[in-house]
């Protein structure tokens, strides 16, 4: 994360013992896989780090009322395992790194 960025970790930070194993993206609104706009979650033991490089993004936690974050770049969002969520937006560039 850059010094200018903000880390959003309302569901916790990455555990110290996890290691990155895959990064996907860079995606914009046209190239974002459609499944990321629908309800999904990460499997048990997998954490995600969404890195918003440009623009604005709506990140929706679907397991709690009012669980929407409206964020602007640069920013990072920590996503724990098994928490349903999706993203919304039409002007952004992001990448996602997976940890286990």
Structural summary, described in words:
This protein has a single domain (6-99), classed as Jelly Rolls, CATH 2.60.120.10. Helices cover 0% and strands 52% of the residues. It is built from no helices and six strands. It has strands at residues 6-8, 20-28, 47-61, 68-72, 75-79, 85-99. Strands 1, 2, 3, 4, 5 and 6 form a six-stranded mixed beta sheet that branches. The chain is globular and about 35 Å long. The mean pLDDT is 93.
Strand content: over 45%
CATH class: Mainly Beta
Determine the fraction of residues in helical runs and give it as a percent range. Answer: under 10%
Would you tell me the overall average pLDDT? Answer: 93
What would you call the shape? Answer: globular
Helical stretch tally: 0
**Whole-angstrom Rg:** 12 Å
Query: How far is the first residue's CA from the last residue's CA?
Result: 19 Å
What is the CATH third-level topology name? Answer: Jelly Rolls
Topology of helices and strands:
Layout: E1 6-8, E2 20-28, E3 47-61, E4 68-72, E5 75-79, E6 85-99
Parallel strand pairs: 1-5
Antiparallel strand pairs: 2-6, 3-4, 3-5, 3-6
Question: Which key features would you list for this structure?
Answer:
mainly beta, Jelly Rolls, 0% helix, 6 strands, 100 residues, globular, 6-stranded mixed β-sheet
Task: Please give a quick description of this structure.
By secondary structure, the protein is mostly beta strands.
